[in-house]
Amino acid sequence: MATGTFHWTPDYVYGEEIGFKNNIVPYESGKEVRFKRHAFSRKLWTLNFTNVTLTEVQDIEAFFKLHHGAHTSFNWTNPTDSTAYTARFENDSLGYVRVIDNIYNLSLKIHETHE
């Protein structure tokens, strides 16, 4: 069950992918067997935040900690098409770069979940 809403708006240019999880087992004869691991496709977004303040970074970090990294899902609305998704962080770590005093760059990945 999703808890909370990721409400920060990333920079307009961000990456969006769609993917499937499949297992493909090749045989020596050249044939292969394919298995679907999930019934649905899944979207993945790379969200970039440039020139954000330390306060904004700390707010995103607090949200990340509250969800224990990739453990707990949350609600997120894609700013491009206003579609609401249930998502989670792709990774269990979050990093950011200090550009100058009180200005940071941050990039993170989230992906759609089907609960």
Shape: elongated
Total number of helices: 1
In helices, the fraction of residues equals 10-25%
Total beta strands = 8
Largest sheet: 6 strands, antiparallel
Radius of gyration: 17 Å
In total, the number of domains comes to 1
Q: Could you spell the SSE succession in H and E letters?
A: EEEEHEEEE
Question: Overall mean pLDDT score?
Answer: 89
How large a portion of the residues is in β-strands, by DSSP E? over 45%
Instruction: Compute the separation of the termini in Å.
Output: 7 Å
Structural class assignment = mainly beta
Unreliable runs, pLDDT <50, ≥5 residues? Answer: none
Overview of the structural elements:
The protein is mainly beta. It has one domain. It contains 1 helix and 8 strands. Strands 1, 4, 5, 6, 7 and 8 form a 6-stranded antiparallel sheet that branches. A two-stranded antiparallel sheet has the order 2-3. The radius of gyration is 17 Å and the shape is elongated. The model has no long low-confidence stretch (mean pLDDT 89).
The gist of it:
It contains 1 helix and 8 strands.
Secondary structure layout:
Elements: E1 15-19, E2 22-26, E3 32-36, E4 42-53, H1 54-66, E5 74-77, E6 84-89, E7 96-100, E8 103-112
Antiparallel strand pairs: 1-4, 2-3, 4-8, 5-6, 6-8, 7-8
Keywords summarizing the entry:
115 residues; two-stranded antiparallel sheet; six-stranded antiparallel sheet; elongated; mainly beta
